[in-house]
Amino acid sequence: MQDLTERILQYIDQHGTVDTLDLVPVFGLDHQKIVGGVKSIESTVEGVIRTEQATRKCWELTEEGKVILEKGSHEAAIFRAVPAEGIAQAELMKSSPNAKVGFSKAMSNGWILMDKSGGAPLIKRKVETIEDAVQGHVKAVAEGRDGEVPDAVKAEYKKRKILTEVVTKSFVLSKGADFSTSLKKLETDLTVEMLATGIWKDLMFKPYNFEALGVPPERGHMHPLMKVRTEFRQIFLEMGFSEMPTNNFVESSFWNFDALYVPQQHPARDQQDTFFVSHPRLSNKFPVALLDAVKQSHVSGTDGSIGYRYDWKLEEAQKNVLRTHTTGVSARMLYKVAHQPGGFKPVKYFSIDKVFRNETLDATHLAEFHQVEGVVADYGLTLGDLIGTFNAFFNKLGITELEYKPTFNPYTEPSMEIFCFHPGLKRWIEVGNSGVFR
C-alpha cells in the first residue's frame, strides 16, 4: 500500500489533476484498490491531496448483447433464415429463440415481406443484402467507442436489454495545501519516551477531533447468567423434560431435609450452613401419611433399613428455611406424581432456580446461587439410564470428556459425582452430583 500511495502522489505531482478512473490503465490495478490508496493518504496526513467525488457513465453489453456481438442481431438471424423461395411464418418462428423480436424488427426495417398471393402466406426477402447495424453498434460499445452510437439508439438498445448503463463513482485528485510526494505518518499518542528524549519536537501529531462521537455504550444484552440459564432450559426441553414450579424460596425443613432422609442432627441443618426464617417460623401443613412414613424411616427404617435410630422431632421438621437446594421441589413433585388421579405415569422434570446457603462471602462464594435440577421417574430405570441422560445433556453443551465417581448422598443410592475435563484448566473439575432415589 505504501508503494501505491507514493505512485499516486508522484503522478499528481507530474500531471496535476487526475481522475482515479484514469489511473486504472496507467497503474494496471483495480479501481477499488486505487481508491483504497487514496483513502490511505487521507487518513495518514491531512491536507496532502484534495479530493472531489465524481461520477462517470459508460455503456456495457448485457449477456444478450454479447450473443449479438458474436452471432449478429435477432433481425439479421431472421433474414438469413428466409430462403429465396420463401418460408412459412410458423416454420420461420421456430428458427431462433428470439424469432418474435427479430421478425418484428426485420419487418419494420423492410428486409422481409409477407406474400399472400399463393394462398398460404409466405415470408420472403424484400432486399438482397442487409447491413447489421445493431451488431456494428454493439461492437463499437464493446471496443469503448460508445460515443459513436447515438443516444437514442443506446436508449432503444437499453429497452431491448442489449446494453446496460453503468454509473461508476470516482475521485478527482489534486494537490492539497500541504502536498508532498512522501508521507510522514502523524503520531497519535504522546509517550513518556518521547518526552524524556525530546524526540516529540521533531514529530508531527494528528490533531484531536473533539467533535468525534465516542463508542456507543452497549446495552440490551442478556445477562450472562440468564443466557446460560436459557441455554440449559432449551436443552432440557429438547430432551423431553417439563419445567417444575420453583417459586417457593421459603421451604419447610420437612421437604428440604426430612423427606430427603437428611437426619435432624446433620451439620447441614445448623445455622452455620442454613438460613432459618423468623416469620413465619414454622410450617404446619404436611401430608399425614407421608409424615408418618418419613418419621418411621428416620427412627427405625423401612424396607429392610434400620434407620438412623434417634428421636425424630416434628418441631424440627416444621422449621422454615431458605431452601438450600431445589431437590425439595423434586421430592414434592415425586409425591404428587405418585398420588395423581389415574395412577403413576412416567415423567421427566427439570428446574433452574435460586438456592441459599449461609456461606462466608468471598470472591467465589455468595449466599445465593443457581442450581440445575433434573429428575426422571419411570419403571425399570437403572444407573446406566442415569449415565446416558448425563452424557446426552453434557454433549449438547459441548462437553464430551466425562467421568463418574461413587459418592454418598442421604437420599440417593447409588450416588455419583460427575467430572469433566476442562481444556483451559488442563484438569478434571466437578460439574454435578446425582443418584437413584431410595
UniProtKB/TrEMBL annotation:
<dbReference type="GO" id="GO:0006432">
    <property type="term" value="P:phenylalanyl-tRNA aminoacylation"/>
</dbReference>
<dbReference type="InterPro" id="IPR004529">
    <property type="entry name" value="Phe-tRNA-synth_IIc_asu"/>
</dbReference>
<keyword id="KW-0030">Aminoacyl-tRNA synthetase</keyword>
<keyword id="KW-0067">ATP-binding</keyword>
<dbReference type="InterPro" id="IPR002319">
    <property type="entry name" value="Phenylalanyl-tRNA_Synthase"/>
</dbReference>
<keyword id="KW-0460">Magnesium</keyword>
<dbReference type="GO" id="GO:0005829">
    <property type="term" value="C:cytosol"/>
</dbReference>
<dbReference type="InterPro" id="IPR045864">
    <property type="entry name" value="aa-tRNA-synth_II/BPL/LPL"/>
</dbReference>
<comment type="similarity">
    <text>Belongs to the class-II aminoacyl-tRNA synthetase family. Phe-tRNA synthetase alpha subunit type 2 subfamily.</text>
</comment>
<dbReference type="GO" id="GO:0046872">
    <property type="term" value="F:metal ion binding"/>
</dbReference>
<dbReference type="InterPro" id="IPR040725">
    <property type="entry name" value="PheRS_DBD3"/>
</dbReference>
<keyword id="KW-0963">Cytoplasm</keyword>
<keyword id="KW-0479">Metal-binding</keyword>
<keyword id="KW-0648">Protein biosynthesis</keyword>
<dbReference type="GO" id="GO:0009328">
    <property type="term" value="C:phenylalanine-tRNA ligase complex"/>
</dbReference>
<keyword id="KW-0436">Ligase</keyword>
<dbReference type="GO" id="GO:0004826">
    <property type="term" value="F:phenylalanine-tRNA ligase activity"/>
</dbReference>
<dbReference type="Pfam" id="PF01409">
    <property type="entry name" value="tRNA-synt_2d"/>
</dbReference>
<keyword id="KW-0547">Nucleotide-binding</keyword>
<feature type="domain" description="Aminoacyl-transfer RNA synthetases class-II family profile">
    <location>
        <begin position="227"/>
        <end position="438"/>
    </location>
</feature>
<dbReference type="Pfam" id="PF18552">
    <property type="entry name" value="PheRS_DBD1"/>
</dbReference>
<dbReference type="InterPro" id="IPR040586">
    <property type="entry name" value="PheRS_DBD2"/>
</dbReference>
<dbReference type="GO" id="GO:0005524">
    <property type="term" value="F:ATP binding"/>
</dbReference>
<protein>
    <recommendedName>
        <fullName>phenylalanine--tRNA ligase</fullName>
        <ecNumber>6.1.1.20</ecNumber>
    </recommendedName>
</protein>
<dbReference type="InterPro" id="IPR006195">
    <property type="entry name" value="aa-tRNA-synth_II"/>
</dbReference>
<dbReference type="Pfam" id="PF18554">
    <property type="entry name" value="PheRS_DBD2"/>
</dbReference>
<dbReference type="Pfam" id="PF18553">
    <property type="entry name" value="PheRS_DBD3"/>
</dbReference>
<dbReference type="GO" id="GO:0000049">
    <property type="term" value="F:tRNA binding"/>
</dbReference>
<dbReference type="InterPro" id="IPR040724">
    <property type="entry name" value="PheRS_DBD1"/>
</dbReference>
